[in-house]
Inverse folding.
């Protein structure tokens, strides 16, 4: 049965005077070097690592506004000041207390001298992480473990997502794809047992296996008379498996779902959780965002899965978000980074230097129907404003400004 609950304030697209208490201006300009003109909109994605080991722990942690890591995350957001923002790895709770606590105790309070920021609308919903499949997905002979959930997780909603917006979310037309079955994707990259050369998963598993490890969301944002579809996802990491490459193949197809969704001639097979079929119509405005766990050139992804997006003909690829910090730390940390072929300026994550290195795995990609003004990755070099904040997460906030 679908686990789908949304807090009342989130469901109605909450306003600050309804659910928030004291109001703060959201028009203050960001940190120097991140200025945004009035004629542009800033979309962003940020994996903030707000996942906890136990259900309900996150909202308790955020109930007190003194925790150092949430303060750093909030300050980064206050410096960049996105208009529309995806937060990855924010544990879902049906009450909505977690995101409400983060807003009132951190975002709406000045951090490091930055102006507070408030968001007029927010959306969150259930995800597949921690939802038990009833099958032995990891083939360890046990049932009911974190590895047997539709997405790896210790409890339903771990590693969830939240979208926050200064502009109205068209809630009646939000589409979610939590229940879409992997078997219903034509040409799906099902893993194969390397020894027997037979399907890694039996028919019982294939008949219930959901493609999305968290969920895929199409969230229409109303900006004047224009609608921009904020298409968000957080595919499974392409690691923690063996030669069968079950996670790598799933990661590829989770990314492919996004690529197919924006391509009218390829999206007929897709259906949402309400049974509606198809993807976006030709010419629709969209921004694809999320931690895709795949680098176009380096890392362990299968078939360079990120290139399904970074080489997509309907995506505006005129600007690639970059930072000075990515270049600096790639050289400073060395080791695995020395073997990479991708431009380190484009990196968005700082991982184990011994065998992974820094990668570009977080994306904010507008459609060709939208004009990009500027973009960036919040990763300052040492000595630059905000450089001390990036220890808050192994991911960096990625942003893009598009003209209204």
């Amino acid at each position: 049965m679908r686990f789908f609950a949304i807090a009342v304030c989130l469901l109605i697209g909450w306003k600050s005077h309804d659910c928030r208490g004291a109001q703060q201006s959201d028009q203050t300009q960001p940190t120097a070097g991140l200025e945004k003109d009035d004629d542009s909109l800033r979309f962003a994605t940020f994996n903030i690592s707000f996942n906890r080991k136990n259900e309900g722990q996150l909202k308790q942690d955020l109930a007190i506004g003194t925790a150092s890591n949430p303060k750093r995350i909030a300050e980064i957001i206050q410096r960049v000041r996105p208009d529309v923002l995806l937060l990855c790895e924010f544990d879902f709770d049906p009450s909505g207390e977690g995101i409400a606590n983060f807003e009132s105790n951190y975002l709406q309070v000045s951090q490091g001298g930055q102006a507070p920021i408030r968001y007029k609308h927010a959306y969150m919903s259930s995800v597949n992480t921690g939802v038990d499949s009833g099958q032995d997905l990891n083939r360890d002979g046990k049932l009911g473990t974190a590895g047997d959930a539709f997405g790896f997780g210790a409890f339903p909603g771990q590693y969830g997502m939240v979208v926050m917006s200064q502009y109205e979310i068209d809630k009646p037309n939000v589409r979610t794809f939590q229940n879409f079955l992997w078997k219903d994707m034509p040409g799906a990259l099902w893993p194969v047992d390397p020894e027997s050369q037979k399907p890694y998963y039996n028919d019982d598993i294939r008949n219930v296996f959901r493609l999305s490890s968290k969920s895929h969301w199409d969230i229409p944002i109303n900006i004047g008379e224009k609608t921009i579809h904020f298409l968000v996802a957080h595919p499974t990491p392409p690691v923690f498996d063996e030669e069968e490459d079950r996670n790598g193949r799933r990661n590829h197809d989770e990314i492919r779902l996004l690529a197919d969704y924006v391509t009218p001639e390829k999206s007929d097979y897709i259906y949402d959780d309400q049974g509606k079929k198809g993807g976006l119509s030709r010419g629709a405005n969209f921004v694809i965002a999320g931690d895709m766990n795949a680098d176009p050139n380096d890392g362990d992804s299968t078939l360079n899965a990120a290139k399904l997006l970074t080489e997509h003909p309907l995506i505006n690829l005129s600007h690639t978000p970059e930072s000075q910090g990515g270049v600096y730390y790639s050289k400073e940390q060395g080791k695995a980074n020395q073997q990479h072929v991708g431009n380190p300026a484009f990196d968005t994550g700082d991982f184990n230097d011994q065998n992974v290195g820094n990668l570009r795995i977080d994306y904010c990609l507008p459609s060709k129907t939208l004009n990009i003004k500027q973009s960036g990755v919040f990763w300052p070099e040492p000595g630059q404003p905000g450089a001390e904040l990036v220890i808050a997460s192994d991911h960096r906030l990625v942003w893009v400004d598009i003209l209204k």
The two ends are 41 Å apart (CA to CA). The longest helix spans residues 246-261.
